[in-house]
Amino acid sequence: IIPLLTFLCGISSIFIPYVIGVSNGHVPSVIPFISDCGALAPENCIFTQLLNMTALLLIISIYLRHRQIVEYYGNRLRRPDLWWRKISFGLLIIGFIAAFFITATAAFPITENVKVHIVCAMASFLLVTVYIWGQVILSFSVSPRMSGPFLNWIRLLLALIGTGTLVLYIVACYTNTFLPDGYSIPPLPIPYTPEFIGADSPYWLRHTVAAGAEWAMVISNFVFVLTMSFDLRHTYVRPPKVFFKKTHLRRPRSAYEHALNDDTHID
């Protein structure tokens, strides 16, 4: 259920601020940048809160995925080779760092520190893409495969969509590919405000391609996390154990224990 909650929280973190931002006239209704949807109050508060919750749930999902791989190939099948475990652990670290940059993206709103916000967002996009491809390669490389062939091919398709839209996003944002001749990338306004670009603007195509690619990339990444729930539905997690140190094993009896031994009634 954790990957499902990650998906629902992640989708909510982009669509709820979008609806509020459009209703308040803060962003255009036709494909704004995701960061623009969380730029102004009150939607920026909801954007930050939901994004932080998504990062936390993503960390748990990534950890459960790693433990599932270890349990299946290490404890159940007892594979003697450990290369798959090292790769899975490396992907665990990459996923954790990606989640950190997601929280950093929320912590530095684009209206307050546009450069830091963009760097953190790009870092999270790139690291999530690396994590997804690592999981796809691991799924096809280790035998027997933990997931069914249909699920593995769906994940490969999502990885291709996410990577393709990421490349398209970078090309649209940082090159003149989608600009008319004689136009260059406009500088970011300081302080930053959400962009309202009409269809008659020479920058409209660039904006539409970049924003559309960003939405498609983020949604495909969340759907990829959702696919983990199909594997994890065959597993369960026990509560962690708490152990006392030996120095605390011998302790004085409590007042309640004294009362029980003395047959004294306590209200």
UniProtKB/TrEMBL annotation:
InterPro entries: CWH43_N, DRAM/TMEM150_Autophagy_Mod. It is found in: Endomembrane system. The chain crosses the membrane at residues 45-66, 87-110, 116-138, 150-172, 215-232. Residues 1-234 form the CWH43-like N-terminal domain. It comes from the Eukaryota. It is a multi-pass membrane protein. It holds the Pfam family Frag1. Keywords: Membrane, Transmembrane, Transmembrane helix. GO terms for cellular component: endomembrane system. Belongs to the DRAM/TMEM150 family. This is CWH43-like N-terminal domain-containing protein.
